[in-house]
Amino acid sequence: MKLAELGEFGLIERICRAVPNQAGLQLGIGDDCAATTVPAGELLLTTCDMLLEGVHFRRDWTDLAALGRKSVAVNVSDIAAMGGTVRHLYLGLGLPAELTVAELDDFMAGFLGAAADYGAVLAGGDTCASRSGLVISVTAEGTVAADHLVRRSGARPGDALFVSGTLGDSALALRELQAGRLPEPLLARRHHQPTARARLGQELARRRLATAMIDLSDGLLADLGHLLRASSCGAEIAAHLLPLSPPFSVTLETDPALLNLALSGGEDYELLFAVPPTAMADVAAAAAAAEVTVTRIGTLTAAAGGLLVHDRTGAPLPLTGRGFDHFAGRG
Ligand code: ADP
Ligand code: MG
Q1: Among 21-25, 199-203, 252-256, 260-264, which stretch is predicted with the lowest mean pLDDT?
Q2: pLDDT tens digit string along 178-188?
Q3: How many angstroms is it from 16 CA to the middle of ligand 1?
Q4: pLDDT per residue over 226-236, tens digit each?
Q5: Cα(110)–Cα(104) distance, rounded to whole angstroms?
Q6: CA Rg, the chain, in Å?
Q7: To test the ligand 1 pocket, which listed residue (9, 29, 95) has its Cβ within 8 A of the most ligand atoms?
Q8: Rounded to whole angstroms, what are the CA distances from 250 to 178, 253, 303, 316?
Q9: How far is residue 207's CA from residue 202's CA, in Å, rounded to a whole number?
Q10: What is the pTM of this model?
């Protein structure tokens, strides 16, 4: 069935029917606004991310359920990076005429499945026709105890620098797709269905272990650069300590230049955070509670030191990649 047969209000009704419950909301989908509450003493965190067909995804490379999951995860990742807990989601959709109702249902199944996994409720949105591809805009609201908020600023020279999970998998999958090859399954999953490190962000904040934190969407070096500028610090990181997945490591053996993807590739959705020396021992417990691996990759230094990446022998690596910038190189 084509979307046109449902019409705007039929479509909205179909989306609303798929929403399992709106517990925790004063007022959910169906009025002019949602009405929500924030627990006493907590701050409201709000973030918004767009996914545009042809810019962020291609419909011939991803299935719609995975895209629904990813559009939730990329927003939850930002809430996690502040130490918060996601609560409400708002979904803006620009739907091209050729999209089928079955495809929309797949997207919503992925979206609502991921929302439930992270403990979030779909509280509203907007639905329009699009003349240029599928447009997805998600706004997420979360909350965090005021004294647990973790910002990009706050790191100090001498703090240890940690990263969760593994780096470069998503970028390697994208490179394979762009070359017309099918990525290895783990790499493909990391690209199409990233997992936000929701629990880790909360554990680090609740235990007050991280002095600064950011999620990795534009590449390690670019996002580390944001953290360093906000904290007025430099950093030294060790290339041989970067956490790599088995399929990434295998490919790296045949192509050493791939290290650049681990340093600069986008869409890892891991957490990068600084920990003072006195709190180092507790990081392992927070990671275990969150059931993710974390790896120490370097140390914060004085701002004058800049950002240095060295290899196993201590020799500095020339930095080529800069991370992803939507507007770079367009004159
Ligand atoms: P209005 O015209 O007052 O902005 P709409 O007709 O766009 O209201 O939406 C009616 C209700 O349906 C609102 O509660 C809105 O939040 C909800 N809604 C519309 N589109 C979506 C969507 N894609 N996902 C979730 N809720 C939606
Ligand atoms: Mg209205």
Answers
A1: 21-25
A2: 999 999 999 99
A3: 9
A4: 999 999 999 99
A5: 10
A6: 21
A7: 29
A8: 19, 5, 36, 24
A9: 8
A10: 0.94
